[in-house]
Each structure stands twice: as structure tokens, then as C-alpha cells.
Amino acid sequence: MPKREGTTIAGKRDPKTRVKPTLDEIAERANTSRSTVSRAFSRPDLLNPKTVAQILAIAEEIGYRPNNMARALSTGRTGNIGLLVPDIANPFFPPLIKAIQSQADALGLCLFLGSSGESGARENTLFERLAGQTDGIILASTRLSEAQVKIHAARHPITLINRDMAGLPRVLIDTQAAVMEAVGFLAENGHRHIAYLSGPKESWSNQQRMEAATEACRRTDMRLSIIPLSEPSFEGGEAAAEEAVAAGVTAILAFDDLTAQGAHARLSALGIDVPRDISLIGCDDALPAMTYPALSTLSGLSQEAGRHALKLLCDAIEHRDGSQDMKVVLGARFILRDTAGPAPAGDAKDRDRS
């Protein structure tokens, strides 16, 4: 019996063939209908998981890849999702991106990534470009205004990370309790004047941390100097550290680990020892393994946030009525390492030069 072009007599596909695998071939091998096979790729939630697993295994074996353009025409879905972050170079985001990418791969989704460079205008442009090519978009630490987010959400499924807007699916990393714990540690160790290196004004996380630091200092009768960063970067941390030293503080709480690292570098260049002369605490737990001494910080939870965000986005894509107020809150904690300790000996007031 002559063998059909592109397969062996045993039904195994010749890897050198140019004939593309088809849904009909999968259906024949799985002893099911073509529509069931198609549904396994477009709406697997409607099928028995064992059936989906069998179809996907056969597809993998024969090298079948679904045609996303055809699927988009028949189902209205592209199989693509978007993710926008403010700064891909910030060490908080790579673990988050990796977690979303891994979960998207498992779900058969393609991830489109954009970095806005801390610009709300650029983020808005990226959103407009991605909206037509994706089924939904995750906005991580968005720099868009609340009005802009609502406009986009009315036209396209979105999920927010670290922006609390009622009525929209969102994942929040709550650092307020951790900030208050960190400030409490400093108060107990003799510090009376600390600085908070403040991040972008559009950042929900920054607003939460600044409010918590202000309240914690009020409760402990400590003075708080809020020093705005020129930019949330290593260089921004360097410049802000000089202002903190000029203010006479004995401890610094930085917006994130990247700015804390910049502050540490400048303090070292000035001959100021951390933590003997000034204690230093970051946020996000993104760099401690790369620093010496090990950086005290607040736990970041970026990977957990990414996984929850993709789950919420998929739910939002499935349910477009807007009636679900889906919210996941992850609680951060203070992690004491080697850069925070007792205040320098002597009256802290003597150090206050302001």
C-alpha cells in the first residue's frame, strides 16, 4: 500500500515533509470531531480536561500549530495578551514578566510586552497599539491617570497591578504594614530623623509607602524628611542620598531597591558607612543577593502578583459585563538584613543640620 505524502505507513509524520498537520488529522487520531479539536484550542474550558490533554498531546506529536489569524476570525480572539510596565530595567519587573510569560505559555497565549520609560503619554500610545492585537492587557504600576485607565477599560479588558481602582480587576502588593514595621524598628533603635526617597507621583505604591511612613513617624514622634527622586533609578537614588545627608538623617527608606542601591553607592563615595552612620532600607526585595552588605528591604511578591494578574485578566476576557470587582491583595513584610541597625552614638539632634 503506498504511503500518503508526508507520513509514514505507521502514521508518524516525516519531519522533513512540507505538508502541514491539520485539525482533521488530529480529529481522526483522537477519534473525535473536527469541531471538538477546534474547541480544544479556542475554548478548552468547555471540554473535558482529559479530552483537551489528549488533543494537545497529539497536536504536539505531529507538530500542529493553531492559526491565530483564523482563530481570531472565528472566535473574535487573537490568543495574544499585552503587558505594560514603566521600566523593564527596574529589577522588580523581570520576575513579574517571567511569571506571566510562563503562565501564558502554559495557557497557549502569546505575550506582547511594552515598557513606557516612566511616561504616561508613551504608555497610552503603547496601549492603543496593543489593544487591536490582544484580547486583554495587564497594566503594571501604570503611570496613566485614573480617567485614562477607565476609558481604556471601557473598550478593552484590562487588569491592574499596584493601582487600586474599584470596579476593575487588580492585584495590590500592600506595603503599608511593612513600612510601619520598618519605621518602628528604626524608632526602637534610637533613630529620630529619617528620610523617605519618594518615587513617581503617579505611583500608587509610592503614595501608599509615603502615607505609611508619615503615619509611623507621627506615632513614634520621629521627624520625616520626604525627598523626591529626580527619577526612580540608580542615579536618582545617588542624588537623593546627598540631600538626605545634608538634612542630617540617621536612616533612609527608599522607594525601591534600585534607588536604595544608588543611595548606598553615593553614601559609600562620601565615606559614610552603612549601617554604622546611616541605616538604609529599600522596597521590593529585588536586589539583596547582589548587594554588600545585604540590603534590608520590604518583600516584593512580584512573581505572585504576575500569576494572579494573568488569572484575573483571563477571567475579565471571559466576562465582559464589567460587574465583577475582582481584587487580590498580597501583604508585604519587613526583611531585616545588614543595612539597618542602631542610630549612631550621641544625640540625634546634633546631627540635624536643617
TrEMBL record:
GO terms for molecular function: DNA-binding transcription factor activity; transcription cis-regulatory region binding. Residues 21-75 form the HTH lacI-type domain. Keywords: DNA-binding, Transcription, Transcription regulation. It comes from the Bacteria. The keyword Transport does not apply. The keyword Endoplasmic reticulum does not apply. PROSITE patterns: HTH_LACI_2. Residues 1-22 are annotated as: Disordered. PANTHER family: HTH-TYPE TRANSCRIPTIONAL REGULATOR GALS, LACI-RELATED TRANSCRIPTIONAL REPRESSOR. This is LacI family transcriptional regulator. The lineage of its organism: Bacteria, Pseudomonadati, Pseudomonadota, Alphaproteobacteria, Hyphomicrobiales.
